[in-house]
Amino acid sequence: MSSDHLQPKRKSETSAAPVTRREFLKRSAAVAATATFAGLPAFHFAHAQGTDRLRIGLVGCGGRGTGAARDCLSSSEGLEMYALGDITVERAKACRQNLADFGNKVNVSDDRCFGGFDAYQKVLGSGIDVILLCTPPGFRPLHFDAAVQAGKHIFAEKPIATCPAGVRKFMASADAAAQKGLSVVAGTQYRHHEGYQEAMRRIFGGEIGAVKGGSVYYMATSPGVRPRQPDWTDLHYQMNNWLFYTWIAGDQIVEQFVHNIDIMCWFMQGHPIRAYGTGGRQVRVDPAYGDVYDHFAIEYEFAGGGRVTAMCRQMDNTATRVDNRVIGTEGDAYLAQFTDFWVKGKSNWTPGTDWKNPYVTEHKVLIESIRANRKVNEGRQVAESTLAAIMGRMAAYTGQVVSWDQAMNSKLNLMKDPTAFGPMPTDPVPMPGKTKLE
Questions:
Q1: Which of 30, 222, 341, 411 has its CA 20 to 30 A from that of 45?
Q2: Is the pTM above the cut of 0.85?
C-alpha cells in the first residue's frame, strides 16, 4: 500500500477535493508515454533469453506495487510479468489475479509467486530482466543493493530510504548500477509529466527571472488504521500499518511529501544546505498511530540564499492542498499535482489540462532506455530528494537547525532487516528539545 492514493486535485490555491490515482488514470488523455527518448534508434536490445521480450519481476504486491505493475505492462509491448514476491504467497497471488486482464503479458506460475522476508531474493533469481521495487521504503536500500548486485534494471518506488544510513547505502548502489550499465528509474512521476517538464523549461529559460525560492505543500487527510488481529505480532501490526512507523515509512514528510520536496530540488536546481522547522502530533495521538507526526512546517535554505517554505499535514476534516509555487525576480510559476500549471513573467503560459499519464511514462522511459542500450540512472537524484525530506524531519523532530552535511553524515540508522514475525517495540514519539540530533 502507498499513500499516493491520498493525493488531492487542486480546485483553488488553498482548497482541494481528493482525487485518487485510479481516478487520474481514468481521466488521462492517453496511457502512451511522452517521447522522452524521441530520436533514439528503434532497435531492440538482446537479452539473456535470446529475445526482445523483457521479463518483469515485482517485489511488494500491495496497492502501489500492483499499480506499478499495471503501469509497467501498459507502457510498452514485449513485456512479460514473470515473478511476484511479497511477505506472503497469498498477496503475490492476489496481485497476479489483479493483473489477469493483461492476458499473455502475465506469465506467473505458482512456483514464481514467492512469499517471505526473502521473497525479493527469489524474484531476483527467477530469470527476470527488470525488477519493480515497491515494498515500504524501509526495505528499499537492502532490496535495491541486491538488485544491482544481481545485474537487474530497476524501477525503485519513492522514497528510497527512511534514514541517512539508508540513503548512503542506496547512493553507493546507484553508483554501482551506473558502473554496470544498468538503468534505474524512480517513482517520482512528476519528473516525467509533460506539464512539469514544460513549466521547468520555461523557468530555467529565464521566463520568471532568477529563481529566489517558493513554497511546496502536501496537506492531506489521514490514512486509516488497520485494527490489530489476535494472531498478529508487533511486526505484523507495524507492517499492516507501516505508514505510522518511521523506521519503515519515514513519516509523511519522507514517504509522501518527498514528491513536492523533489519538485523543490528540481526548481532550485540542487539540494538545500539547511533546514529549520517544526512539527508535531496534535490529532493522531493514539498509540495505534505508531511514532509519526501529523504535521510539519520546514524552511529550506539553498546556496545563494534562496528559501522555500514546505508544509505537509495528514488530518481529517481539514482543507487539502497539493501544489508548488516558484518565485522569481520577474514573475512566478505554479505547478499543482497533475493538471494545473501556469507561468507568469516575461511571457505568460497557461496550458491545457490533458496530459499523458506520468505513472506509465516513467516505465516507458525505463523500458526504452534498456532496449536502446542508452541507460538512464535517476538513483542519485531521488536519493538527494529523499535526504532533503529526512533533513526536514530531523529539524522538526529535534527542534534544531540541520545542515546538509549533518544529515548526509548522520549516524542515524533506522534500517531493520527482520527475518521473521515477532516482537518489534514502537520507537518513542520524537520530542523537540529532547530528541537528540544524531
A1: 30
A2: yes
- Which domains can be identified in the chain, with CATH numbers? 3-189+362-378 (3.40.50.720), 199-351+385-408 (3.30.360.10)
Strands lying side by side in the sheet with 130-133: 113-115, 79-86, 54-59, 130-133, 153-156, 184-186
Grid cell locating 298: 520546514
Furthest C-alpha separation in the chain: 63
For 40-71, letters b (16+ CB in 10 Å) and e give eeeeeeeeeeeeebbbbbbbbbbbbbbbbbbb
Cell 517521447 belongs to residue: 35
Q: pLDDT value at position 381?
A: 98
State the pairing for strand pair 321-328/331-336. Answer: antiparallel
109 Cβ contact list (under 8 Å, min separation 6): none
- Of 132, 170, 181, 116, nearest to 408 (Cα)? 170
Q: Measuring CA to CA, which residue among 147, 148, 144 is closest to residue 161?
A: 144
What is the Cα–Cα distance from 199 to 168, expressed in whole angstroms? Answer: 31
